Amino acid sequence: MRMSRTEALRDFDLQEAPSQEAPPSGRWSQAASALLAGTLVSLGLRRRSLGGTVVALASGALLYKGIQSRRHTPPLPARARGHAPPSDEASRAHATEVERTLTVGRPAEVLYRLWREPDTLGRIMGHFADVKSMSADDWHWKLHGPLGRELEWDSRVVEERAPEFLRWEAAANSTLASQGWVRFRPAPGNWGTEVTLHLSFSPPGGAFAEAVMKRLRGIPALQTVKALRRFKSLAETGEIPTLHHNPTARASAD
Amino acid sequence: MRALCWNGVNDLRVETVPDPEIVNPHDVILRVTLSTTCGSDLHFIDGYLPTMKAGDIIGHEFMGVVEDVGRDVKKVKKGDRVVVPSFIVCGNCWYCEHNLYSLCDNTNPKPEYQQVAFGQPTAGIYGYTHAFGGYAGAHAQYVRVPYADNDCFLVPEGLRDEQVIFLSDAAPTGYMGAEFCDIQPGATIAVWGAGGVGMMATRSAYLMGAERVIVVDRFPERLAMARKFVGAETVDYSQVESVVDTLREMTGGRGPDACIDAVGMEAHGTGPGHAYDRAKQALHLHSDRGQALREAILSCRKGGTLSVLGVYGLMDKFPLGAIINKGLTLRTAQQHGQKYVPRLLEHVVKGELDPSFLATHRFPLEDSPRGYEIFKKKEDGCVRAVFTA
Ligand SMILES: NC(=O)c1ccc[n+]([C@@H]2O[C@H](COP(=O)([O-])OP(=O)(O)OC[C@H]3O[C@@H](n4cnc5c(N)ncnc54)[C@H](O)[C@@H]3O)[C@@H](O)[C@H]2O)c1
Ligand SMILES: [Zn+2]
Ligand SMILES: [Zn+2]
Question: Any idea what DSSP says for residue B36?
């Protein structure tokens, strides 16, 4: 499936707010990204929102386009790629979905086994959600943040092709229709395995939806790639880099 | 414990903070015996390098004695006296396996900053901004060292702390910068900046067979040290009309075979180019003053090598045309310390390298803000201030 650049960008606008690719919030970090981002400096500092947009487009939309135009799309039915049924146009416009890939220097068999260990998802998603393993195929998800309770759901593995592919879906009665999949394919040379993580969320209808979507928009791009990075570190070194107990002269460790 | 904390631009204070603990299985806790200032710290102290948070402990060049050992640490033992490179590296990823340690994939807990800014995150550093991970620094009584088996290097018996401390950062950085120059017999190398990094680059260039090394700076005490301790010829840029002309004349009209920038984004300068940089930096429209780097580019002989060790954010008025038309090779990196420390320790043991002269000033940790003050202002001939915890 090939897409033109404009198509990809339109898709991006629809599904991912630019703020998702912005660095961690706060004026200082906005300035940081702008300064560090080289050519984006003056835009980023003078006009914050424009700067944010440029940063977002540079790192988000282009990457997104790159993903969309890759020749190897997974051999899945449309629904598995997170597209809601065509009858449900309204919620399609609100759907948030994201897909990111990272190369991990271990064979697919090893990575697949690690992904299936009961505490792995909890450890790698820990920066945005608590994920608890209820049984081999069932996870309980709870997003961090003020909405707490409402953003909890159970998911179950619905498709499995070890050691290449695993897909899960939220239970039918969840507030949030969510699903995700992970794919492991060999990387060239001695790089190991290309791991792709796909997450998608379709919120409930009604007034509540706006609030939920606002929260969800914070998750996709950077959080997804961060989850992959944490998985990679766990696989390659047996631990995840952390600032837990990091001494500072302020209240927080990070 | 007590630790030196950054509380805002030009606001450093020693404060009481929690002790570090073993968190991950490959961690050790080090009791710091000596740590040192670095030119890189000045960039965030002065406010040009973002993503510091008030309360961060700073300091990334240090050594000490192992106090506590995580359960999966195999080689490092309690009581070991070790020196630690400033970049935290895992030893297992593709980059570590290819000796590109500062590019390690697994040690930056906050990859999102650099992912956005640079397209890819690099390794974490102790006490050096949240873009580089937000880890507590080493101007403290204790510090947590992750991946200790890869990041702690045992100090051979008989060496003093001052002889070893700079193997944490200044020495491997300078050594790497000289290695980038691919030095051939008879080569002339020019080095901008007579700080710790520039002096170590100078000594390393001689160790690699350079015939002449010319150091450019403006502080007479530093230039005198460069002549005395590392055998440099020197150019005081404040006393010459043009550094580029001077170097060309010193090298038979050819220019140096390779030029090393050991200055970075806060280069001091003169003339309209500097006024332009300074004004833009003050307005935060860009972060760098680039006089040294521009001179290095223009001075280098055709087909030569430009080795950039100074830290930059972004820089405009970058004479790319000179690089292209003169066919220069540009090499740069943050230091891959883990690659060089064993080799450097050998040089020190054999007496071929003794960086201890860089430690011009020594303070107890409690007085470290004063140490940074004189280091920053280059007062009293200060090249590096070292702190004892
Ligand atoms: N790449 C790395 O891994 C790495 C590691 C350590 C330090 N660094 C960087 O190396 C640079 C030097 O570090 P340092 O600790 O030696 O700093 P330092 O501040 O002690 O020394 C810098 C020297 O540059 C001189 N200088 C300023 N403007 C100059 C100009 N226009 N021409 C010639 N010399 C000029 C200063 O007078 C000073 O002596 C810094 O930018 C630092 O961030 C990089
Ligand atoms: Zn340093
Ligand atoms: Zn690594």
Answer: E
Q: Which atom of ligand 1 is nearest to the CA of B332?
A: 1
At A181-202, the pLDDT tens digits run 999 999 999 999 999 999 988 7
Identify whether residues B73 and B98 lie together within a single domain. Answer: yes
Closest chain A residue to the Cα of B146, Cα to Cα: A241
Instruction: Clarify whether residues B250 and B377 are in a common domain.
Output: no
Q: Are residues A233 and A117 in the same domain?
A: yes
Q: Any idea what the Cα angle at residue B257 is, between residues B256 and B258, rounded to 5°? A: 90
Q: Check pocket membership of B353 for ligand 1, CB cut-off 6 A.
A: no
Are A226 and A109 within one domain? yes
Separation between Cα atoms, residue A104 and residue A85, nearest integer Å: 34
Give the CATH number for residue B282: 3.40.50.720
* Per-residue model confidence as pLDDT tens digits over B20-71: 999 999 999 999 999 999 999 999 999 988 999 999 999 999 999 999 999 9
Q: What is the ipTM score, two decimals?
A: 0.93
CA gap A110, A164 in Å, rounded: 11
Partner B contacted by A232 (CB < 8 A): yes
Which B residues, 311 through 350, put their C-beta within 8 Å of a C-beta on chain A?
Answer: 313-314
Instruction: Starting from the CA of residue B200, give the closest ligand.
Output: 1
Q: Do A36 and B5 touch (CB under 8 A)?
A: no
Q: Is B271 helix (H, G, I), strand (E, B) or coil?
A: helix
**A142/A223 same-domain check:** yes
- Report chain A residues whose CB lies below 8 A from the CB of B50: 28-29, 31-32, 35-36
Please tell me whether residues B323 and B225 are part of one structural domain. Answer: yes
At residue A144, the pLDDT reads: 79
Residue A193 resides in a domain = yes
DSSP A74: -
- Nearest CA-CA partner of B126 in B117, B139, B114: B139
Range of the structural domain that residue A52 is part of: 22-71
> Within a domain: residue A175?
yes
A254 touches chain B (CB under 8 A): yes
Same domain membership, residue A205 and residue A111: yes
Surrounding ion ligand 2 within 5 Å at CB are: B 38, 40, 169
